[in-house]
Write a structure and sequence with these properties.
Blueprint (H helix, E strand, L loop, with lengths): L2 H38 L6 E4 L4 E8 L2 E7 L2 E6 L3 E4 L9
Antiparallel strand pairs: 1-2, 1-5, 2-3, 3-4
Length: 95
Protein backbone atom coordinates (compact mmCIF):
# COMPACT_ATOMS: atom_id res chain seq x y z
CA UNK A 1 0.00 0.00 0.00
CA UNK A 2 1.52 3.32 -0.96
CA UNK A 3 1.13 6.57 0.96
CA UNK A 4 -1.32 8.13 -1.51
CA UNK A 5 -3.74 5.26 -1.05
CA UNK A 6 -3.33 5.43 2.72
CA UNK A 7 -4.22 9.14 2.85
CA UNK A 8 -7.12 8.65 0.44
CA UNK A 9 -8.59 6.02 2.74
CA UNK A 10 -7.78 7.39 6.20
CA UNK A 11 -7.39 11.11 5.49
CA UNK A 12 -11.10 11.92 5.87
CA UNK A 13 -11.21 10.01 9.19
CA UNK A 14 -8.21 11.94 10.49
CA UNK A 15 -9.79 15.25 9.43
CA UNK A 16 -13.12 14.36 11.11
CA UNK A 17 -11.32 13.41 14.34
CA UNK A 18 -9.40 16.71 14.28
CA UNK A 19 -12.64 18.67 13.83
CA UNK A 20 -14.28 16.81 16.73
CA UNK A 21 -11.25 17.39 18.93
CA UNK A 22 -11.05 21.15 18.34
CA UNK A 23 -14.82 21.80 18.38
CA UNK A 24 -16.06 19.42 21.09
CA UNK A 25 -13.40 17.70 23.20
CA UNK A 26 -10.95 20.57 23.77
CA UNK A 27 -13.58 23.20 24.79
CA UNK A 28 -15.18 20.70 27.18
CA UNK A 29 -11.81 20.00 28.81
CA UNK A 30 -11.25 23.75 29.20
CA UNK A 31 -14.66 24.26 30.86
CA UNK A 32 -14.01 21.33 33.21
CA UNK A 33 -10.63 22.77 34.23
CA UNK A 34 -12.22 26.18 34.93
CA UNK A 35 -14.90 24.48 37.06
CA UNK A 36 -12.29 22.51 39.06
CA UNK A 37 -10.34 25.73 39.66
CA UNK A 38 -13.51 27.56 40.76
CA UNK A 39 -14.42 24.81 43.24
CA UNK A 40 -10.87 24.65 44.58
CA UNK A 41 -10.79 28.44 45.16
CA UNK A 42 -14.03 28.70 47.15
CA UNK A 43 -13.67 30.64 50.39
CA UNK A 44 -15.85 31.73 53.27
CA UNK A 45 -17.92 34.79 52.47
CA UNK A 46 -18.32 34.04 48.75
CA UNK A 47 -21.81 34.47 47.32
CA UNK A 48 -22.68 31.38 45.29
CA UNK A 49 -25.49 29.72 43.37
CA UNK A 50 -25.97 25.97 43.58
CA UNK A 51 -26.73 23.84 40.54
CA UNK A 52 -30.29 23.63 41.93
CA UNK A 53 -30.62 27.44 41.80
CA UNK A 54 -30.27 28.22 45.52
CA UNK A 55 -28.49 31.50 46.29
CA UNK A 56 -26.39 31.67 49.44
CA UNK A 57 -23.25 32.84 51.18
CA UNK A 58 -20.57 30.39 52.23
CA UNK A 59 -20.29 30.17 56.01
CA UNK A 60 -18.02 27.17 56.36
CA UNK A 61 -15.94 24.85 54.17
CA UNK A 62 -14.93 21.36 55.28
CA UNK A 63 -13.38 19.06 52.71
CA UNK A 64 -16.36 18.27 50.47
CA UNK A 65 -19.13 19.90 52.59
CA UNK A 66 -20.10 23.55 52.17
CA UNK A 67 -22.41 25.28 54.67
CA UNK A 68 -24.50 28.02 53.07
CA UNK A 69 -26.51 30.81 54.68
CA UNK A 70 -29.60 31.20 52.50
CA UNK A 71 -31.26 33.93 54.59
CA UNK A 72 -33.28 34.41 57.78
CA UNK A 73 -30.87 32.27 59.82
CA UNK A 74 -31.40 29.28 57.53
CA UNK A 75 -28.29 27.22 56.91
CA UNK A 76 -27.98 24.30 54.52
CA UNK A 77 -25.15 21.91 53.81
CA UNK A 78 -24.33 20.91 50.25
CA UNK A 79 -21.46 19.11 48.61
CA UNK A 80 -18.76 21.20 46.98
CA UNK A 81 -19.76 19.76 43.59
CA UNK A 82 -23.26 21.23 44.05
CA UNK A 83 -21.87 24.78 43.74
CA UNK A 84 -22.70 25.95 40.24
CA UNK A 85 -21.28 29.46 40.16
CA UNK A 86 -19.57 32.08 42.31
CA UNK A 87 -21.28 35.44 42.02
CA UNK A 88 -19.13 38.46 41.33
CA UNK A 89 -19.15 41.15 44.01
CA UNK A 90 -20.26 44.54 42.70
CA UNK A 91 -18.33 47.44 44.13
CA UNK A 92 -20.28 50.48 45.32
CA UNK A 93 -18.55 52.79 42.81
CA UNK A 94 -19.73 50.72 39.83
CA UNK A 95 -23.46 51.19 40.52
Amino acid sequence: MNTATFFNQFGPLIIIFAIFYFMIIRPQQKREKERRDMLANLKEGDDVVTVGGIFGKILNLKDDVVTLDVGDKIKIKVTRAAIGNVLKKVEKNEK
